[in-house]
Design goal:
alpha/beta, four-stranded antiparallel β-sheet, 13 helices, about 25% helix
């Protein structure tokens, strides 16, 4: 059975170019009349990487079930260079809400919490007259602030029969208390989001944050998706058999597929003792050659993952149909974005965190018929800290107080400001020996990463540091990042210039580790090596 999906239409390109930008705060135009302000449906998934959307090309594009994502792309604008600033769920979500880097909003790692007193985009919109709601994954520990209504998962949530914490009840803190809802989580979130939108006051605009658990591990799916890819053998990435530094010059081990195979095998023996329930166990690679074992793990991961992703697309369709039925589609901004990217076998990895492209990229599509040209693509460099300023701009209010981002509303119309950013700053704070803490800079062609390898004072980290190391990639000559070219003599002038630019970005964003003697010694010993 041929499961490849056909594309009945093409998605055009705008003339938008990758220009640059400063990090000035956006001063909103407050001239909007109440009736002119758009509704906002902000759909956020977890780990739904661009390789699996089908609108970004790649080996899985023909296999992704993406009818409704393609509809949004055909009716709106796709961002081709959208990036997160810290590729892990809770920190990325905090940056989306606050418009600020981790060192400003205080949420650095998965073990941190978002301080409730902080300003965020939901608070801003509610203060300006918007009705605000949040349904689904929250994952920031403290009670959601700025929302008139919420119905969120306990912790990361469960795919089947999840526990939902509702705004009508006292906040339970870390306790697993709430309403047990029968059904599949992605369907439940969509149903509750639609119910709330239909009950909203039509005389006032709304912000609905519809947050799915999918496609987070364990990549489960409802029964209707079970046979979606029966008999399909998925194409493998060219660097699936990247075994480490000996083949690439990479300085870190990463999270290999063998670890995922181990998790499946352990869970196969006693599912009740594992932290999550994987679909379609048992699974084992015992007795296989290591290449065959890695291929087997890859095939299972992609099959589960794409079925999980197909469920998201199915529910995006339900949301779009609801807007059509309500007659408000023309005046509703619809955004679909993932909180970060994810490795699907590239470099032999799964998971995210690292500044490599598959993890760094945030797939993003936006539809607003009244303003954004349909079927367009934008190549400007957009960051997750920009989202809050964009929404504030559309709503006619100001961005959160400590926001470091900038509205890209003009960019979406094809009118990129001449001073738009040409490079971006990234920092991942959690320290583990296989995925060290690191910072980096990326521009249109090159990427430079400094893996400083120390926990400093970060929660959820290993105490043992790793030897600091550098990685450099020419994304034009080596788009798959298969060769660490840091030691290549041909790039030394560029590397020196990028090191200087990285320091400038750290200063501009206020992330210079002031007061950390440990980081001062690392920088003095390894930065200019």
């Amino acid at each position: 059975m041929d499961m490849r999906l056909q594309f009945p239409f093409s998605i055009g390109l705008t003339a938008c170019s990758l220009l640059g930008g400063g990090q000035s705060l956006f001063a909103a135009d407050s001239s909007h009349a109440e009736g002119e302000r758009p509704n906002i449906l902000f759909i956020l998934s977890d780990d739904h990487t661009s390789q699996a959307w089908g609108i970004y090309g790649g080996r899985l594009a023909e296999y992704a079930r993406n009818e409704n994502i393609r509809r949004l792309a055909a009716e709106g604008c796709v961002l081709d260079n959208c990036f997160c600033t810290n590729s892990i769920s809770s920190p990325s979500r905090a940056s989306i809400l606050t418009g600020a880097y981790s060192h400003v909003n205080g949420l650095y790692t998965l073990s941190d919490t978002l301080e409730p007193t902080q300003d965020n985009i939901a608070k801003r919109l509610r203060e300006s007259g918007y009705q605000t709601a949040l349904v689904g994954k929250w994952h920031l520990v403290t009670q959601p602030q700025g929302f008139d209504y919420y119905s969120v998962f306990h912790d990361q949530g469960e795919y089947r029969d999840p526990t939902m914490i509702n705004s009508t009840e006292p906040w339970p803190g870390n306790r697993n208390l709430g309403e047990r809802v029968h059904g599949f989580s992605t369907d439940i979130v969509t149903e509750r989001a639609i119910r709330w939108m239909k009950s909203a006051d039509r005389s006032r605009p709304f912000l609905m944050c519809c947050h799915f658990k999918a496609t987070h591990e364990p990549w489960d799916f409802p029964e209707r998706m079970r046979h979606l890819y029966d008999g399909v053998v998925f194409p493998e990435p060219e660097n699936l058999f990247d075994w480490g530094p000996e083949t690439t010059g990479r300085s870190f081990r990463g999270q290999p597929l063998e670890e995922l195979a181990r998790r499946w095998q352990v869970a196969s023996k006693d599912p009740d003792k594992w932290w999550c329930r994987y679909p379609e166990l048992p699974f084992s690679t015992e007795g296989m050659h290591r290449s065959a074992a890695r291929s087997a793990a890859y095939q299972k991961l992609v099959r589960d993952y794409l079925r999980c992703g197909a469920t998201i697309d199915d529910n995006i369709g339900k949301l779009l149909r609801a807007l059509d039925e309500m007659g408000i589609a023309d005046n509703t901004i619809v955004i679909y974005v993932s909180d970060q990217g994810y490795f699907l076998g590239e470099h032999g990895f799964f998971d995210k965190r690292m500044m490599l492209e598959e993890s760094l990229r945030m797939p993003f599509v936006i539809r607003y018929p009244r303003e954004i040209p349909a079927g367009t693509r934008n190549k400007d460099m957009i960051l997750n800290i920009d989202f809050a300023s964009l929404l504030a701009d559309y709503a006619g209010t100001r961005a959160p107080e400590r926001s470091q981002g900038r509205s890209f509303r003009a960019n979406l119309r094809g009118e990129t400001p001449k001073d738009w950013r040409k490079e971006m700053y990234y920092r991942y704070w959690t320290q583990h020996s296989n995925r060290p803490a690191h910072m980096g800079i990326r521009n249109e062609r090159y990427k430079l990463m400094f893996l400083y390898g120390d926990r400093l004072t970060m929660t959820g980290s290993e105490n043992t540091p790793t030897v600091p190391a550098w990685e450099f990639y020419d994304l034009q000559a080596d788009p798959r990042e298969n060769h660490n070219a840091y030691g290549d003599p041909a790039y030394q002038k560029i590397i020196r210039e990028m090191k200087e630019e990285l320091l400038k970005l750290r200063k501009a964003y206020g992330d210079e580790d002031q007061g950390s003697e440990r980081m001062k010694r690392i920088m003095e010993s390894y930065y200019w090596e």
